[in-house]
Write a structure and sequence with these properties.
Layout lengths: L2 H6 L9 E5 L2 E4 L7 H6 L16 H23 L5 H7 L4 H9 L1 H4 L3 H14 L2 H5 L3 H31 L5 H7 L15 H10 L9 H5 L6 H17 L7 H17 L4 H17 L1 H7 L1 E2 L6 E2 L3 H20 L32 H16 L1 H7 L2 H8 L1 H26 L4 H43 L2
Antiparallel strand pairs: 1-2, 3-4
Length: 471
């Protein structure tokens, strides 16, 4: 019997190696006995045999790694090759033909930014309740609730401290030359945090509301720290709903979650994405998607059956079509869908939305639902994503997310300006050279950050919870 099947049958309920307080899911603890330093900083052996019990979520760790690499591409391209991104089209206008071709063909489904942000949110909520769903007791939920804030706050406050240090050292001064001399208006210099109190408040406020214009978000290179705000807040939405799972029937809780997610879309709430992750977890742990894949589903008022894959493939196709329509064919209409929600005040539709705030895109949701359903239902696809390379990227994904912008806005911009503006190197060659240099630098920094900040924050959260439970 596979590990996923054992999870469905409840035979892995005693597995306490799942760290569901991770940024975008569960970090899978090593089954080998580790020393204290190994437990704090993480081991170097990132490979797990697929027959291990923890492999039931290994493919999600690998999928997280793939999206983390796509997010890295998005950061690199909008800084160094802006014409290959949708933001470059919006803010810079014209771009070299090869950059436009990259944007029109590959950007909508590989590095549009929205897809990767949405994937991180759904992955987080897909996995954040694994411990409770497999072991439905009060200690599992209490530990999850307790660790979440500590687990995320420590890396965020350290990251913004690094941003302050690099800003005070003048590391971002080359951004002005990139904008004025090379015409890249996509990126801006990070908002300065001028005092220790401002730094602490900016870090603390990240966890209180979702706002794309707050100080902590504007101070962070790439201005993507709002993803942490969404992940943190939606985790608690999911926790509250998950508590009801043991006391409701499969049928009613499944359709109840569907209704909750649909209403969240109407209300322009990130719970639309967050509850989607919980629905996927519920399907995987209680409804056995592998069996449904083989049985298919019946059409209403007929005896005919369609293969289960029709649903995810249809969802994926809708998402892809919408992305190419709104990002390639009709980019000026990309925000039209934002009207079809309820406004905060009054009746009718939402015609007073802000494009500067994080937005939930229907195209992204359809794509991600299709991708996740295919992955959850097909063991062969799960084995592909559970390979050690993808899982390694998944393990360092939070560290990479928190450091890649700092490095790209400082060292990456300086290198590119030096090559093109000062050294008169051809832009395509300079872009390739910067990519060759910054890729290993960013991934090494992500690994180091994961070991020195990310993993210790998990260890500290676990130890603190154990301490407060002692009599």
């Amino acid at each position: 019997m596979s590990a996923a099947a054992r999870l469905v049958d409840g035979q892995d309920n005693n597995n306490q190696e799942l760290d569901d307080s991770d940024f975008v899911g569960a970090e899978i603890g090593d089954t080998k006995e580790q020393g204290k330093l190994g437990r704090i900083f993480g081991g170097w052996d990132v490979y797990r045999q697929p027959e291990q019990a923890q492999a039931c979520v290994g493919y999600l760790e690998g999928l997280k790694g793939v999206f983390a690499f796509e997010a890295f591409l998005w950061v690199f391209l909008r800084v160094i090759v802006p014409g290959a991104t949708f933001e470059g089209l919006q803010k810079n206008g014209t771009s070299p033909r090869y950059e436009s071709v990259l944007r029109e063909i590959l950007s909508p489904i590989f590095w549009d930014g929205s897809l990767q942000a949405g994937a991180f949110v759904i992955l987080a909520t897909r996995i954040c309740c694994i411990r409770f769903l497999t072991n439905k007791d009060s200690i599992s939920m209490a530990g999850t609730l307790f660790r979440r804030g500590i687990r995320l706050f420590v890396p965020v406050i350290v990251t913004l401290a690094l941003v302050v240090i690099t800003e005070k050292a003048g590391a971002y001064k080359a951004i002005a030359r990139l904008r004025d001399e090379l015409g890249n208006k996509v990126i801006e210099e990070p908002y300065p945090l001028d005092s220790a109190l401002q730094w602490f408040n900016a870090s603390f406020n990240i966890f209180w509301w979702i706002d794309g214009l707050q100080a902590g978000v504007k101070a962070f290179p790439t201005e993507q720290l709002w993803i942490v705000s969404v992940v943190y807040q939606q985790s608690y939405t999911v926790y509250m709903l998950a508590i009801m799972i043991p006391y409701t029937t499969k049928y009613w809780r499944f359709w109840g979650l569907i209704l909750f997610s649909a209403l969240s879309w109407w209300l322009t709430s990130w719970a639309w994405y967050g509850v989607t992750g919980l629905i996927l977890a519920e399907l995987a742990t209680s409804h056995n998607l592998n069996a449904r894949l083989s049985n298919g589903f019946s059409l209403p008022k007929t005896s005919r059956k369609l293969p289960f894959l029709v649903l995810p493939l249809l969802s994926l196709a809708i998402g892809i079509v919408l992305k190419y329509v709104y990002e390639v064919a009709e980019p000026n209409k990309i925000n039209n869908e934002l009207v079809f929600h309820t406004p905060i005040y009054g009746g009718g539709l939402n015609r007073d939305f802000s494009v500067n705030q994080p937005q939930q895109r229907a195209s992204t949701w359809f794509m991600l639902v299709g991708i996740f359903l295919i992955v959850e239902a097909m063991p062969g696809v799960q084995r592909f994503f559970a390979n050690p390379v993808f899982r390694y990227l998944g393990r360092i994904s939070f560290g990479l997310f928190l450091t890649q912008g700092i490095l790209m806005y400082s060292a990456g911009v300086r290198l590119y300006v030096a090559f093109v503006a000062d050294g008169h190197m051809a832009r395509p060659l300079a872009q390739l050279v910067v990519f060759a240099i910054m890729t290993p630098v960013c991934f090494l920094a992500g690994d180091i950050y994961a070991r020195l900040v990310d993993n210790p924050s998990k260890w500290f959260a676990n130890e603190l919870f154990d301490y407060f439970r002692r009599p």
